[in-house]
């Protein structure tokens, strides 16, 4: 919201726009939709005239001039910017860059990035500022929760042969000789169990010497020992869920363990940055606040930092124990950096001894909290549950207030407080709407939608990932609780079941004790590789996960198959973001490496020098592509053994790794787990169990010298995997069957963006890079242009050969024309790289209706008007609807049908009656250009029969028109001035005296509110009480003509006061309004409609 | 046909009724905007998390 309270700003991620709403009127009005970069995720207002929009895929900030509703400059940031705040003296902008793990500092005069604070934590996103503006706080989204995995298998530990110097070979070795070794810590005699595991289960027991639930004795022994998860307590000691103390193996000095002595994972959660002198060295950290830290705000008055998010009990085994209760939704607080934390469960009504609550209590839960905002006096805060579709309130001490949650639209992700009006505005991302909540009643009072192009398949299926009320027994968990945003929680889980039965899938046998498995990415997981799903390949299809809703999330029944299909279809429509480790244009590089070295920065360790590129797909005897043989990296090896050239006694033995060959595209997002650091960011790394370091361990683990470390050569390939493979960087890989399969990876340059505005803003060099990418790699890139051209807001897409298609059919412009205009005085234009399949929609046809946007501009208008007959003070009555008298079809002969849902609207949204809106010609106001039957709501808003607020005229081009409102027994009214009607719609408010109307005395003033004259029963434009053609006699006729006190219910034009009853005499009769409106004293006087 | 009006009494009644204001709780003004969905083939959905902020 702008400081003056006149505008509300909301990012429209699906449409790549910033929506501007005008506040202050009875209805929020969407007055502008400003194209910005790809995937805008945050907007912050710098002042009344300037807003900064953070675009996560474009790696860019669009600076918006709110006086012109235009992007006036672009600021390129590091990877995946998430939030921006303004702080410090002199004031600066601070931008969190999630992919880079940094906060960039931007000068507000030059708009240049002046410094970067490198952070020690994963996915820094939410930002907040101290009350005095001198401290910036940054929360790590994937912060970790002080749990980590101890390796328990021998895949990286088995011995096979010796090196030439006699030293035994150990671990997985490349054909060229280097080996990667991860000792088996679980079977290390220095562990708390002396290296013993249950001989049948192959795992540490979880209940003394036994198991809870009891071990199924009919199951055969598991084929391998398994890893275990430990959690650090307040004293820095590491325990498993059976009370075993593994500190000696984690941070101590036990012999032959994986980690270095002194290894530690601080569990940093919030970075505390000096806003006046920001620096990497001067940044401190608050720890132990939770795992996924989603949103943050500073409490006014106390200055307390309040963070909402989730924490997991992933150190606890097994699935039956965890069912429906493996997560907490928390408010975490601290006042002084380094001081004590206070953590409060935001669902105090949940008894975590149980997996489910009755539905009335279940829907009290909040899940997936994505926003927190405090009232100005710090006495109360509101928190949005994106998964629970509600808002909860807490008091100043962090205690959840007793009143129930406030239901809002689907996917609330942001809240703004309007203290002056006592309102909350809530962005419902999944629905594409903004809710208005009254802070006095804590009830939603209105909802305004905005253009949302999200495909239906996504809208239908998204709830199955996120909705916590539909997804869990206690109402606070969904699949998205761990697969956060379709990605992961950076944790491993042991979801085995000791009491479970063996399972046979695709002819292969699976043990119910599966061991530790890290959370998998769900992005583009459907049909994008070979073989079955899940780490082990024990799911033949996505529908096979339906049971997880019952045995993991606490529901009483599995998800129905039709809903699983919706879920699957949604996941099939998800994309990998551009990989920051990829170079834009590998075929212009001197080597075959795809790695973008400028993006690489290690955390807690030093990234090794980038070795010569290695092509994973070269035809050696045993290379990675034998198994990882699709573009995704996914392969078909399913749990049972070795491929040619491998096996016992060779360089790699799959006896100890019975998993599918995994999708490798998410590898770069799993950086952060290292064995050789005291400052580890993450407790889980690569491979199914999370035991493999990101930088494939290279130092100090071999004894033969030079050959060790070869696996390090593969790092560039793995980090830069997503983004597809082409012959330029891998000619040999095209010999593999699925190497050229379609993947939904955005190419690394997607999102690149340059804004040109006059002579000094915009880099021609960078624009040329973008244009060259499209010219040379048209299957990976398209380019669009948005902004002001020829005095109008326009859109274009690049066709190649220096030509652009405009948003007018048949019109093309040249690259030079656009650039010359933007660099001159034509107004700012922004170029953006997109995926080629989206260039037409994103550039020139937003709604994909094959009518280009400029041609598609329709006359649209928002209208308010009151019908006097129904007006009873501050609103109109809805008696016709209430008594089921309102016809489903309009009475004006247009054949419009009301949506049944609209008839159920309550309160001031309830429909009163049908009305007619006409557009009259600008120059010839008697000429009706178009008309539409609409419904009047009690509040005075006119809406389309399907409920849309804006009235559209599809066959009428945008332009200037007089607007007329007619009603079947009220005098119509017309604007005096023509109104500019385009996109987004303008507002014509006939309820305000200030709205100039055609003619004289066109409406009636009732205590400062304008209403349309009631009583034109005959519909002839004249209210007449006596004489021929009067409006009184039809009333008498309707009631029978003889007994004046008779009444006739129904939907009749004689029902002047719209109360559903035609009445001639007595209270609330329909005759008196006619007499009153003609003056009340001279029965022959008339009132004439002022519409030409 | 002639029917005598009792204008004064009816006007009084009308004004009394007009003074009664019944405003129940607000609810939604409109349906979610589902009509604008575009084909999946023209849309790259990255599931980027979104928020709006106050200054």
Give an overview of the whole structure:
The complex is a heterodimer of chains A (1092) and B (55). In chain A, a hairpin with a 5-residue loop joins β17 and β18. Chain A has a 6-stranded antiparallel beta sheet. In chain A, strands 46, 47, 48, 50, 51 and 52 form a 6-stranded antiparallel beta sheet that branches. Chain A has a 4-stranded antiparallel beta sheet with strand order 4-5-6-7, with no helix packed on it. Chain A has 1092 residues and is mainly beta. Chain A has 14 helices and 59 strands. Chain B is mostly helical. Chain B contains 1 helix and no strands. The longest helix of chain B is centred in the N-terminal third of the chain and has 12 residues. Chain B is elongated, with a radius of gyration of 27 Å. Chain B starts with 6 loop residues before the first helix and ends in a 37-residue tail after the last helix. The relative contact order of chain B is 0.06. The N terminus of chain B is likely disordered. The chains are: A mainly beta (1092), B mainly alpha (55).
Identify low-pLDDT runs of chain B.
1-35
How many angstroms separate the termini of chain B? 71 Å
Share in β-strands of chain A: 25-35%
Number of beta-strand segments of chain B: 0
Computed over alpha carbons, the radius of gyration of chain B is 27 Å
The computed structural class of chain A is mainly beta
Order of helices and strands of chain B: H
Total DSSP E strands of chain A: 59
Mean pLDDT across all residues of chain A, rounded? 90
Sketch the major β-sheet of chain B.
none
Quick summary:
The complex is a heterodimer of chains A (1092) and B (55). With 1092 residues, chain A is mainly beta.
Which key phrases capture this entry?
heterodimer, A: mainly beta, six-stranded antiparallel β-sheet, 59 strands, elongated, B: 55 residues, mainly alpha, 22% helix, 0% strand, disordered N terminus
């Amino acid at each position: 919201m702008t400081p003056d309270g006149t505008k509300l700003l909301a990012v429209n991620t699906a449409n790549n726009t910033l929506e501007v709403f005008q506040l202050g009127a009875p209805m929020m009005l969407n007055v502008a939709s400003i194209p910005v970069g790809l995937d805008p995720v945050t907007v912050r207002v710098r002042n009344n005239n300037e807003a900064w929009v953070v675009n996560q895929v474009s790696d860019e900030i669009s600076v918006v001039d709110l006086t012109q509703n235009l992007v006036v400059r672009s600021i390129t940031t590091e990877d995946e910017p998430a939030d921006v705040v303004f702080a410090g003296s002199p004031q600066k902008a601070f931008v969190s860059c999630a992919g880079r793990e940094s906060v960039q500092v931007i000068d507000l005069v030059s708009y240049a990035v002046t410094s970067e604070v490198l952070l020690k934590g994963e996915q820094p996103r939410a930002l907040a500022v101290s009350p005095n503006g001198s401290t910036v706080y940054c929360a790590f989204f994937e912060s970790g929760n002080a749990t980590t995995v101890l390796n328990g298998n021998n895949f990286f530990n088995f011995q096979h042969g010796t090196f030439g110097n006699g030293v035994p070979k150990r671990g997985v070795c490349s054909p060229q000789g280097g080996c990667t070794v991860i000792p088996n810590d679980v079977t290390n005699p220095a562990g708390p169990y002396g290296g013993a595991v249950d001989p049948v289960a192959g795992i540490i027991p979880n209940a003394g010497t036994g198991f809870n639930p009891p071990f199924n004795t009919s199951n055969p022994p598991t084929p391998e020992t398994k890893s275990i998860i430990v959690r650090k307590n307040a004293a820095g000691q590491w325990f498993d869920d059976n009370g075993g103390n593994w500190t000696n193996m984690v941070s101590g000095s036990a012999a032959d363990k994986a980690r270095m002595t002194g290894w530690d994972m601080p569990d940093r959660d919030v970075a505390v940055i000096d806003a006046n002198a920001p620096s990497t060295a001067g940044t401190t950290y608050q720890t132990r606040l939770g795992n996924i830290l989603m949103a943050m705000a500073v409490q006014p008055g106390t200055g307390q930092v309040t963070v909402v998010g989730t924490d997991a009990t992933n150190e606890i085994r097994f699935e039956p124990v965890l069912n429906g209760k493996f997560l907490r939704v928390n408010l975490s607080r601290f006042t002084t950096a380094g001081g004590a934390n206070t953590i409060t469960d935001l669902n105090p009504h949940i008894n975590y001894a149980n997996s489910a609550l009755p539905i009335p209590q279940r829907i009290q839960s909040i899940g997936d909290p994505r926003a927190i905002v405090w009232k100005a006096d710090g006495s109360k805060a509101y928190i949005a549950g994106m998964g629970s579709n509600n808002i909860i309130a807490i008091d100043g001490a962090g205690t959840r207030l007793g009143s129930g949650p406030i239901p809002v639209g689907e996917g609330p992700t942001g809240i703004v407080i309007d203290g002056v009006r006592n309102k909350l505005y809530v962005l419902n991302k999944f629905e594409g709407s903004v809710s208005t909540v009254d802070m006095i009643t804590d009830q939603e009072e209105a909802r305004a939608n905005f253009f949302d192009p999200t495909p239906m398949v996504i809208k239908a299926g998204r709830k199955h990932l996120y909705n916590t009320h539909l997804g869990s027994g206690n109402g606070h968990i969904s699949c998205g609780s761990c697969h956060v945003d379709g990605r992961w929680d950076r944790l491993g889980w042991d979801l085995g079941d000791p009491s479970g039965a063996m399972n046979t899938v695709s002819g292969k046998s699976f043990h119910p004790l599966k061991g530790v498995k890290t959370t998998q990415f769900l992005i583009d997981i459907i049909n994008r590789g070979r073989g079955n799903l899940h780490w082990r390949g024990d799911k033949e299809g996505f529908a096979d996960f339906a049971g997880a809703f019952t045995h993991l999330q606490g529901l009483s029944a599995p998800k129905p198959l039709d809903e699983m299909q919706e879920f699957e279809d949604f996941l099939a429509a998800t994309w990998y973001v551009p990989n920051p480790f990829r170079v834009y244009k590998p075929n212009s590089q001197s080597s075959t490496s795809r790695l973008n070295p400028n993006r690489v920065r290690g955390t807690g360790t030093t990234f090794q020098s980038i070795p010569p590129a290695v092509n994973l797909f070269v035809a050696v005897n045993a290379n990675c592509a034998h198994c990882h043989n699709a573009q995704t990296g996914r392969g078909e090896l399913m749990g049972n053994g070795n491929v040619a050239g491998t096996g016992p006694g060779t360089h790699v033995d799959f006896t100890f790794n019975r998993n599918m060959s995994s999708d490798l595209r998410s590898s770069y997002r799993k950086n952060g787990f290292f064995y050789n650091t005291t400052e580890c960011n993450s407790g889980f790394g690569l491979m199914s169990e999370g035991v493999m370091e990101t930088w494939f361990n290279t130092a100090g683990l071999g004894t033969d010298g030079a050959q060790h470390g070869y696996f390090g050569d593969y790092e560039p390939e793995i980090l830069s995997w997503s983004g597809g493979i082409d012959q330029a960087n891998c000619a040999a890989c095209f010999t593999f069957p699925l190497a050229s399969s379609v993947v939904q990876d955005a190419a690394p340059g997607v999102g690149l963006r340059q804004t040109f505005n006059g002579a000094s803003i915009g880099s021609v060099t960078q624009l040329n890079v973008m244009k060259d990418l499209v010219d040379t790699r048209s299957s990976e890139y398209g380019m669009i242009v948005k902004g002001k051209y020829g005095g109008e807001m326009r859109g274009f897409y690049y066709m190649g050969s220096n030509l652009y298609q405009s948003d007018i059919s048949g019109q093309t412009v040249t690259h030079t024309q656009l650039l010359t205009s933007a660099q001159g005085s034509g107004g700012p234009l922004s170029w953006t790289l997109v995926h080629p399949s989206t260039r037409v929609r994103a550039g020139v046809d937003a709604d994909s209706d094959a009518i280009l946007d400029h041609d598609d501009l329709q006359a649209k208008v928002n209208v308010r008007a009151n019908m006097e007959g129904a007006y009873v003070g501050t609103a109109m009555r809805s008696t016709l609807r209430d008594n089921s008298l309102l016809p489903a079809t309009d009475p004006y002969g247009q054949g419009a049908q009301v949506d049944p849902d609209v008839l159920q609207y309550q309160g001031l949204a309830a429909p009163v009656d049908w009305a007619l809106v006409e557009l009259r010609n600008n120059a010839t106001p008697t000429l009706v250009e178009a008309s539409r039957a609409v419904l009047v709501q009690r509040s005075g808003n006119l809406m389309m029969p399907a409920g849309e607020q804006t009235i559209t005229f599809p066959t009428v081009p945008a332009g200037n028109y007089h607007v007329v409102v007619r009603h079947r027994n009220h005098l119509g009214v017309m604007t005096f001035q023509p109104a500019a009607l385009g996109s987004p719609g303008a507002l014509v408010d006939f309820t305000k005296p200030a709205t100039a109307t055609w003619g004289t005395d066109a409406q009636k003033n009732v205590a400062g509110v304008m209403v349309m004259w009631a009583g034109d029963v005959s519909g002839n434009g004249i209210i007449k009480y006596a004489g021929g053609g009067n409006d009184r006699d039809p009333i008498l006729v309707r009631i029978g003509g003889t007994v004046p006190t008779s009444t006739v219910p129904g939907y009749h034009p004689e029902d002047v006061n719209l109360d559903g009853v035609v009445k001639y005499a007595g209270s609330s009769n329909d005759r008196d309004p006619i007499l009153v409106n003609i003056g009340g004293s001279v029965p022959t006087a008339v009132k004439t409609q002022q519409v030409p | 046909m002639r029917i005598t009006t009792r204008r004064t009494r009816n006007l009084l009644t009308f004004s009394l009724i007009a003074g009664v204001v019944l405003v129940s709780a607000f609810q939604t003004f409109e349906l979610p905007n589902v009509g604008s969905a575009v084909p999946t083939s023209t849309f790259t959905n990255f599931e980027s998390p979104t928020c709006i902020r106050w200054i």
